[in-house]
């Protein structure tokens, strides 16, 4: 490809539906399209462009599958039965500069960022002359666009840069991603900012999102769109990664309050009911508009976690009690434990077709776990245990707070396993392992035994390569120097 993926590739796509299989992003029979050189000169076109940004976010080459599943497959909580070759380079920690998955994530992450930036710029130009009603709508559109840009940027910096903090050690001066504050022209040179600058940019976008929601005085009613509770939830995650413990705790608390969440379900039937698709998950603050008619079919998350051979690792299964309510969505479609075939887990839903299941991206249980970790780090072991209990009670053996460790170190150790149990299939495990530091075991093999091909790996150093298709454009993006040495030799 002869142009940078950070540049505008084909204008702003205005999504009208999802394709059932394959990449038809540029086909005009699927989309109305506004060329990138045409101004967004009315409120309606700004809204259409925002829909395009959501489409790109939810596309299977980004949060709809690839950027979301990435953090689970490159970790200790997944197992590959080797019957297909999907994602095997990510699972086996053998990435390359020509990895299709890395290229997809890079390209579509910047499509989201570019689309969101153009929405913000278009709305700002219209704002002064707009009616009061239109100003409220433009504020809402900008609020959502800032949040979309922050979400995509966090995904990109997580994958293509070092973790910002690792058990107190600061890596914020290392190369991050290209920050896009205004639309990038075709011939404009770009450069990577530091990780610290990238996080400051993400924080600024989230603050701007909340400010515009406040100015609009209304938000979308459906959680397939960003709302203040989802923004607060994402903000809590961003603070957690930076070890801003009090800020993380406060943002998580705000998210739960805005979401009217005071407790989580803890019975198998209630838990299973969360994963019937769409708005069934009353513990979710933000999910993708994927269902039985609009889905990615063979390219979906559910397909990956079923017919494409991925399942919970034997280690994860070993730390999940048999009567833990989270097992209510687990099932197996094969009787051969040596070649496990999973039913799709959180993606199975009422239909029984895993391809129809959606990705729940920002959820209440994570907020309790963020509060628990932050409080433990701040020395409040009792407060940490109280927050942790809301999630841990999914295991009936945890009948009260007194069943949890009483000291901060014990609580933190419990939280690490609890995040594995609770956040399985939500794509956060790799970043947890990296930020906690220490050596880990990954690349599970020989099911049903707990066995690893990669042992005692310092995963905190793992930094994935920028796609060579981007580097070779000569537009200014530099490679992660020495990235190959951060991965093990098997």
Descriptive notes:
Helix 6 packs antiparallel against helix 7, helix 7 packs antiparallel against helix 8 and helix 12 packs antiparallel against helix 13. The chain folds into 2 domains: 254 residues, Alpha Horseshoe (Serine Threonine Protein Phosphatase 5, Tetratricopeptide repeat); 162 residues, Serine Threonine Protein Phosphatase 5, Tetratricopeptide repeat. With 490 residues, the chain is mostly helical. 42% of the residues lie in helices and 8% in strands. The protein has 16 helices and 10 strands. A hairpin with a 7-residue loop joins strand 9 and strand 10. 51% of the residues are buried. It has a two-stranded antiparallel sheet. Strands 3-7 form a two-stranded antiparallel sheet. Strands 4-5 form a two-stranded antiparallel ribbon.
């Amino acid at each position: 490809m002869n142009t940078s993926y950070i540049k505008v590739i084909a204008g702003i796509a205005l999504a009208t539906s999802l394709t059932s299989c394959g990449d038809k992003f540029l086909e005009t029979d699927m989309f109305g399209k506004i060329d990138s050189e045409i101004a967004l000169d009315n409120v309606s076109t700004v809204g259409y462009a925002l829909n395009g940004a959501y489409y790109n976010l939810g596309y299977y080459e980004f949060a709809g599958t690839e950027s979301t599943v990435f953090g689970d497959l490159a970790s200790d909580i997944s197992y590959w039965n080797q019957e297909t070759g999907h994602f095997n380079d990510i699972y086996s920690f053998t990435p390359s500069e020509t990895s299709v998955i890395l290229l997809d994530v890079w390209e579509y992450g910047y499509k989201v960022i570019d689309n969101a930036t153009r929405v913000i710029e278009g709305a700002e130009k219209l704002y002064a002359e707009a009616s009061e009603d239109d100003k409220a709508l433009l504020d809402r559109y900008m609020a959502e666009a800032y949040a979309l840009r922050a979400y995509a940027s966090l995904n990109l910096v997580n994958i293509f840069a070092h973790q910002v903090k690792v058990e107190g050690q600061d890596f914020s001066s290392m190369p991050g991603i290209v920050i896009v504050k205004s639309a990038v022209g075709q011939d404009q040179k770009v450069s990577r900012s530091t990780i610290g600058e990238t996080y400051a940019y993400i924080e600024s976008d989230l603050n701007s999102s909340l400010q515009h929601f406040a100015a609009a005085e209304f938000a979308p009613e459906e959680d397939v769109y960003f709302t203040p509770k989802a923004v607060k939830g994402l903000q809590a995650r961003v603070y957690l990664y930076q070890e801003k413990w009090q800020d993380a705790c406060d943002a998580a608390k705000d998210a739960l309050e805005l979401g009217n969440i005071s407790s989580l379900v803890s019975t198998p039937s209630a838990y299973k009911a969360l994963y019937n698709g769409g708005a069934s998950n009353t513990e979710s603050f933000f999910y993708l508009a994927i269902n039985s008619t609009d889905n990615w079919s063979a390219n979906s998350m559910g397909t990956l976690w079923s017919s494409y051979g991925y399942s919970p690792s034997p280690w994860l299964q070993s730390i999940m009690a048999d009567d833990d309510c989270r097992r209510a969505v687990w099932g197996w479609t094969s009787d051969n434990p040596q070649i496990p075939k999973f039913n799709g887990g959180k993606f199975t839903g009422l239909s029984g077709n895993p391809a129809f299941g959606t990705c729940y991206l920002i959820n209440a249980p994570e907020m309790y776990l963020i509060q628990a970790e932050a409080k433990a780090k701040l020395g409040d072991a009792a407060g940490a245990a109280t927050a942790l209990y809301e999630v841990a009670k999914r295991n009936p053996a945890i009948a009260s707070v007194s069943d949890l460790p009483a000291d901060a170190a014990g609580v933190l150790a419990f939280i690490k396993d609890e995040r594995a149990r609770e956040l399985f299939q939500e794509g956060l495990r790799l970043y947890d392992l990296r930020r906690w530091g220490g050596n880990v075991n990954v690349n599970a093999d020989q099911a049903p035994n707990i066995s690893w091909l990669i042992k005692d790996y310092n995963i905190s150093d793992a930094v994935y390569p920028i796609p060579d298709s981007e580097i070779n454009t000569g537009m200014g993006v530099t490679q992660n120097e020495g990235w190959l040495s951060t991965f093990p030799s098997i």
